[in-house]
Amino acid sequence: MEPQSNSYLCVFKMKFKLEASDKFSKARAGEISTDHGTIKTPIFMPVGTAGSVKAVHQRELKDDIKAQIILGNTYHLYLRPGLNTLEKAGGLHKFNGWDGPILTDSGGYQVYSLSDVRKIKEEGVTFRSHIDGSKHLFTPEVAMDIQRVIGGDIIMAFDECTPYPCDYNYAKKSIDMTHRWLKRCCDRFDTTEPKYGYSQTLFPIVQGSVYKDLRIKSAEAIASFEREGNAIGGLSVGEPAEEMYAMTELVCGILPVEKPRYLMGVGTPVNLLENIALGIDMFDCVMPTRNARNGMLFTKNGIMNMRNEKWKNDFSPIEADSELFSDLVYNKAYLRHLITSKEILGAQIATLHNLHFYLWLVNEAREKIISGEFYDWKKKMVIQLAQRL
After folding, report:
1. Is residue 192 in a domain?
2. What PANTHER family does the annotation carry (predicted)?
3. Per annotation, catalytic residue among 284, 314, 321, 327
4. pTM for this structure?
5. Is residue 99 flagged as an active site residue?
6. Which of 33, 106, 289, 316 is the most buried (most CB within 10 A)?
7. In a domain, 180, yes or no
8. Is 44 domain-assigned?
9. What average pLDDT score do residues 235-261 get?
10. ω before 267 within 30° of 0 (cis)?
């Protein structure tokens, strides 16, 4: 795979500074600089599918949860509210009132999940809207144009996310097409301009299912494009955790050390720590918000199902280490009551807690990397975090 041409006059403003590395693992702490602010890594990015992180105000995201970057979903935002509205608003930042960095996915994962209503060809992907059944075409060029309009600081290349399990020959054809699509993405990105007066950065995506040779081939191809950051996709789609870790470790050994690495769609608190140890800098996942709305909480000491009868008369704080979450102190019995009663406040409190916990966890990992304590701390934490309380 030939690297994309550098003949275009482009100015890339996103910067990544590596600040510390762990002596006993591949974990590292760094800082990503964008026009909308800096991002301390490792970082977890709350998912705002339709322009909002469900059940959370922007003020809470910024002041309480201390999120540094959030996600917007290209497929959903394209369909609703639509590009015309977003462009008139001045992009997603102006539309939703979030003034920090935003990352937009390319729509590739949603296309993957719409397997019954889409067709994949070399040109791109034809699919039907889940809203009204209308027919649409996403090509690499269209995906770039849409993300220019949405206005993410970091935008993703259009790729095919293969399912698990996946036939080897299909996975091979898929990565070859994903690499050809990446060339088209880069050409379109490099010959167009941001719309709203700030820079945007394009991340390619490594694919290859759980096949080592395909992951190596894809990582080498993606690295050859020499973009400012790189992503790893197609994991956390049903494969065993051991396969995820093996593929992540393999790919991180190939992707450039001096650029941020983003593992897409991952995952549990344990997944985060294990993959940080393998060299990942950025994560996103709907798990903390989706599970919160179903009454599942993540804590320092393990996982809690707030629907369980055992919490009915437990008036202790949700998080035993309440000083870490002083702005979110609610007792277990009250939260259980709200959730079993299907009160909206229950979903809000649970979501705030889970996101706060995820952001606390990656920040704590960062502090431990810098202080040289990460390896031993991680070994202890993964045991605690996996417990069912």
Report:
1. yes
2. QUEUINE TRNA-RIBOSYLTRANSFERASE
3. 284
4. 0.94
5. no
6. 106
7. yes
8. yes
9. 97
10. yes
Domain that holds residue 183: 15-106+143-284
| Binding annotation | 105-109, 159, 207, 234
Q: Which of 22, 105, 153, 281 is catalytic?
A: 105
Q: For residue 35, what are the CA distances in angstroms to 43, 66, 70, 200?
A: 17, 18, 14, 9
Residue 167 annotated as catalytic: no
pLDDT at 15: 96
Q: What are phi and psi of 137, to 5 degrees?
A: -125, 120
- How many CB atoms lie under 10 A from the CB of residue 284? 22
* Residue 355 forms part of a structural domain: no
Residues making up the annotated binding site for substrate are: 105-109, 159, 207, 234
Assess whether pLDDT exceeds 60 at residue 322: no
Query: 171-218: per-residue pLDDT in tens?
Result: 999 999 999 999 999 999 999 999 999 999 999 999 999 999 999 999
Characterise 191 by phi-psi region: left (phi > 0), alpha (psi -120 to 50), beta (else): alpha
Mean pLDDT of the residues in the chain:
92
Q: At 236, which CATH number?
A: 3.20.20.105
In angstroms, the Cα distances linking 207 to 157, 172, 247, 249, 251 are 12, 9, 10, 14, 10
* One-letter identity of residue 116: D
Number of structural domains in the chain: 1
Q: Is 20 exposed, middle or buried (0-12, 13-18, 19+ CB in 10 A)?
A: middle
Tell me the per-residue pLDDT of 145-165, one tens digit each, with 9 for 90 and over: 999 999 999 999 999 989 899
**Residue 116, CA atoms < 13 Å, CB-side half-sphere:** 2
CB atoms inside a 10 Å sphere around CB 223: 19
What does the alpha-carbon distance between residue 377 and residue 292 come to, in Å, rounded to a whole number? 26
